[in-house]
């Protein structure tokens, strides 16, 4: 059974149970005579840890150190957004946001340790933006046992939305890796229908999810995988894997890496003058901070996919959301380079959390989960045109639309139409 079919089956099978679950925690209720109870009465008995009439405590867990420390720039964009909202809007619905960041070094046991510290010592209302697939997976079991929201996980693993009954307190945000893999497969089936593909992937759920989405989508087509190499996040280099992949003479390289290894893969490709594949690099390793060390002139025409506006792209110079982001980042996080996509990613995800908190019917942990599972065409700052957040109690994937892009000159250039993978065949 394909990843796509399995996900669809899971959604159908959990629909009824999820509906019952949300009914049990929803803010709305009915009295003995069938009349609706007041929101205030329906909220009684729900968890209010970390939230008062004037404040909300949120905790984020990121790799501020270690092999994926490049992601440690993201919470700076998050904090700048919350500082802006607190200072200029009085918070969200009158509640100031207190955002605490912890460092897990991208080590799952440390992730759980930091989650415990945030929940049991600092008494946060919710875990917002735990980053990484293996690290967030480690936190997921703890968060669901404790009935603490783990909201808008910064990872595209399918598991965040796959089973809302088993994990009702966890939800992702960005497009799933399997969806991203399907987009690249569709691109090749159309533009390079006899492509021979070499795959480099991180040996964890992140790498395997994207890889399986791609391989499922190419079944029955002329696109074939001729070589594969995996690496561990603790490996010092992926040069040996790249040499083996180059030996396959594949005409496409699907590069499923995190930033450090993305830079290495791009450099190895550029240095190997005897191999010139179409280089497809996944979204999480597509930022200018990954490409720039290799040299923009050496990464021309590589392909990726996006769901956010690129802050380094002049086409967004007159865009109101981009102007707001750059102005307020400069004001509340002076010294940060607003063209850095990690900061804009943090800003965009914080904007999404702002929208969810603003929609609370009950100011409770249960109310937050109800809100994030009932998003209807909600646009948060910096999403590309045509992309919005949508969820239901059964569909825990807020963003599932992507657009292809090609690197030319010193920036990414969008091409084609935005692809909603919920509808893609």
From TrEMBL:
Top-level taxon of the source organism: Bacteria
InterPro entries the record matches: Leu-bd, Peripla_BP_I
CDD domains per UniProt: PBP1_ABC_ligand_binding-like
Swiss-Prot/TrEMBL keywords: Signal
PROSITE patterns attached to this UniProt entry: PROKAR_LIPOPROTEIN
Family: Belongs to the leucine-binding protein family.
Designated name of the protein: Leucine-binding protein domain-containing protein
Organism: Actinomadura macrotermitis
